[in-house]
Amino acid sequence: MTIERAVQFGSGARLAGVLTEPSPERARVGAPPVILINSGILHKVGSCRLYVKLARALAEEGFVTLRFDLSGLGDSDVRRDAMSFEESSVAETRDAMDYLQRVRGADAFILGGLCSGADVSHMTAIDDARVVGMASIDARTHRTPGFWWHNYAPKVLSFATWQKWFGRVLAGNRRRVTAGTEVHPDERAFEVPSYVRVIPPRDELAEELRAIVRRGTMLLYVFTGGLDFYNHEGQHRGAFRDVRFGTLMTERHLRASDHIITDLDLQRQAVDMHVAWAIDVANAVSQRRSPLSQSGTPALG
Q1: Burial degree of 206 (CB within 10 A; 0-12, 13-18, 19+)
Q2: How many other C-beta atoms are found inside a 10 Å radius of the C-beta of residue 203?
Q3: Bridge-partner residues for 37, per DSSP?
Q4: Three-state SS sequence of 139-159
Q5: What is the DSSP string of 248-295?
Q6: Alpha carbons 90 and 121: distance in angstroms, whole number
C-alpha cells in the first residue's frame, strides 16, 4: 500500500508538495528519499503524470518521494524577494531536502526531473554534498562528431532523401517561374513563439560535472528522441570525455519518445529505468555507510 499526503514547507516561500511513502513493511531502511522538481511550468504531477507514476513505483520499492512545486508554480506561493530563478530554484530544492531531513532524518538525497527539472537538479548537486544521486531526463548536453555522423549518414545513404532533394530543386525552379504570383494571406508563414533553453558552454558544464562526480554522486541520464541536439546513446559521455564518470554514470536513449514522453509504453520504460537505478544508488549508499566502507573502501564509484 502506498501512502500519499499533501505537505507544505519552505523558508523563502510556502511550498506545496506531495509526499509519497511506502507501507511500513515495504520501507527500504536507509534509502535516500527522491525529490522530483518541476519541468518548465508544469506542476508536480509532471508531464503526462510521469512524476505521479514514478513516485508510486518508487514507493512500491520502498522509497520515499517528494514531488513539489517551485515558487509561483502549481500550489506553491510566489516569492517576495528579488532572487533569480537560478537562485530560488536551488534554494527551494534545498528547502525540500531540509524538510525531509527534519521529518525523516534523511541526510542523503536523490534529485530528479525533466528538462528544467534536470537543470535545477544539476545546479543543486554542484555545491550540496547531500545529493548522492541525480536522475535527469533530457539534461543539457552538447553535440559531438558522433552526433553529426548519426544525423547525416542515414540521410546521405537514403534514396528517399535524394528524391526529396531533387523534388525541392524542381519545386524551386517552378517557384522562380511564378514569382509574380500573389500569395494568399493564409499561406504566409508566421513565427511561432517557443521556449529557448540556454545551454552553458561545454567547458563550463564539464567543470560542474567534475565537481559533482568528485563526490561520488551517481548519475542517470535519460534522453528522448524529442531533442534536436542529442541522437544516440553514448553522446553525453562522449561530449564530456574529460570528465571521469567511470561507473557513476548511466546513459539511456528513449529514441522513439517525444520530449514529454506521452507514449504509455515508453513512460513505463522510463519509470522502470529510474526505479532500477534508484535501487543501485540505495545499495551504494548502504555500502558506503557499512563498517568496511568506513575503514577506507570506496563505495560510490
Answers
A1: middle
A2: 11
A3: 68, 113
A4: CCCCCCHHHHHHHHHHHHCCH
A5: GEEEEEETT--TT---HHHHHHHHHHHHHHHHHHHHHHHHHHSHHHHT
A6: 8
102 contact partners, CB below 8 Å, separation of at least 6: none
Q: What is the largest CA-CA distance in the chain?
A: 82
Q: DSSP for 179-236?
A: TTSPPPGGGS--PPP--------HHHHHHHHHHHHHTT-EEEEEEETT-SS--STTHH
What is the structure's pLDDT at 155? 59
Cβ pair 70, 89 in contact under 8 A: yes
**191 falls in which pLDDT band (50, 70, 90)?**
very low
pTM above 0.90, yes or no: no
The per-residue pLDDT for range 95-110, each reduced to its tens digit, is 999 999 999 999 999 9
Residue 12 is given by DSSP the state: S
CA distances from 282 to 4, 6, 38, 64, 279 (A): 21, 25, 23, 12, 5
Model pLDDT, residue 150: 85
Distance of alpha carbon 39 from alpha carbon 50, whole angstroms = 11
**DSSP code of residue 246:** G
Residue 179 has pLDDT above 70, yes or no: no
Inter-residue contact 106 to 32 (CB < 8 Å): yes
Evaluate if residue 14 carries a pLDDT over 60: yes
Evaluate whether 66 touches 19 at the Cβ level (below 8 Å): yes
Residue 12: what pLDDT? 76
* Selection from 287, 284, 278, 290 nearest residue 110 by Cα: 278
Q: Cβ(75)–Cβ(68) under 8 Å?
A: no
Sign of the dihedral defined by the CA atoms of residues 130, 135, 138, 144, in that order? positive
